[in-house]
Design a protein that fits this description.
Helix content is 47%, strand content 35%. The protein is built from 2 helices and 3 strands. The longest helix is centred in the last third of the chain and has 18 residues, at 46-63. The protein starts with a helix and ends with a strand.
């Protein structure tokens, strides 16, 4: 019984860390450093954050083309 309890606790612990939320804040900047757009903190799984960054890259391409960059800071 003790062994089952320990295994169950270990599984919960591992799953808890596997689904940790991460947060990031991002800006779209022109190449001269001027901030074109600033976004509030976005939190989610690693996949959610990667999708968010991809959407910002698409917006940057649409409005600035190669004359801009997406800068994100993860917390």
């Amino acid at each position: 019984m003790k062994r089952l309890f320990i295994l169950l606790c270990a599984a919960v612990f591992i799953l808890g860390f596997a689904s940790c939320k991460k947060c990031t804040t991002c800006e779209i900047r022109k190449l001269d450093g001027t901030v074109e757009a600033s976004y509030d903190e976005f939190c989610g799984s690693k996949k959610d954050i990667d999708d968010f960054k991809k959407s910002l890259e698409a917006k940057k391409e649409l409005f600035l083309g190669a004359n801009g960059q997406v800068i994100c800071t993860e917390k």
